[in-house]
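note to self: dont lose this again. the chain is below, predicted strucutre after it. 392 aa total, dont forget to put it in the shared folder this time
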Amino acid sequence: MPKRLAILYDCPFPFIQGGGQRRLFEIAQYHLAHDWEVEWYALKFWEGPDKIRHEGIIYNSVGKWTELYDSAGKRRLWETIYYGAMIARHVELCKFDILLAGQWPLFHLIPARIFCFLGKSKLVVDWWEIWGREHWKNYYGIKGVLGLLLEKLLSKITPYIIAITERGKLQLQELGVKQNEVVFIPNGIDFEKIMGAIAKSKKFDLVYMGRLQSHKNVSHILKGVALLKDRGCSITFQIIGDGPERARLEELTHSLDIDKEVFFHGMIESDLEAYAWMKASRLFVNPSTSVSGSISILEANACGLPVIAYKTDQGVSEELIEEGVNGYWVEETNYKAMAENFYQLLLDKGLGQNIKDNSIEYARRYDWSNIAGEYNEYFLRIMGDVKDKKAL
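---
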């Protein structure tokens, strides 16, 4: 008899693009191929009936489509509450073997936990990042206090939590999660698919791929390109992705007089197309200062691109970059330090073939078949757990 997995996340992949939902989708695909039935409970971001089957997954609409972000590019509080309330209507969730919930938008974890009391389900939370006091305050202002409290309370809602970075695992333990209740399983990539992408003929020095948000600091790359241009060093830069910061970044590009050096692709729907453009670059840049287990870093490595990133407490997770093997760290968090690294790597020292080959080999271990396999082993282990049901 097939085992049953329910995914609880408001944004269903591939109808809504994003790293978190892509991770859940890849996990689903692996389990479909290993004697599992998979259903996804999401808001209705697709056309047609409320219940559809797509690429083997049964998608269930728990509520109508609604805007995820406000005009400032922040998650709408109403949407997060709405999704949690809609999940509470689906009592059949108590009959699944595993409820795999994406951490966001938090409120849905409450009814999911109740369903575990009512039936046989085990709630597993894929916990992607810890914001902490300052991030919540900066993001939502005074309303961020509610988010901070929810983060602390809901981190203990189940003894089965998966962290996607080593730093995230430590942060969860600092919130009070027991060491044996959180495991680390990193992000993954479709390695073979990336290998099949053919590089575009038009070449760039730098590339960024991801959502254009303020904490991603894409403006630092633009300012670095402008600084080097003023020194007589012309560096080209392409940006793959869209988001609330795009208009501001385009204005900044124009004001810095680097329109000829910078190209905005916007969102590229085809993965192969995106990888082809990445392979037309020499160096991938991720200047994020928010906790990140970035899939794009692994994708860049698989494309043969070393990665440059800020080394900060809240930035890219340290296990993702091994200095001089698959990338480089920038110790100071400012565009001048970033520009100096561009210069050293692209124009002075250069990027040798060894680090490109090393980057590809580094990425190979993160193929989804390996990562999703770890989930399967984990699910089977906790399904065989003989603890008292009330402790689950």
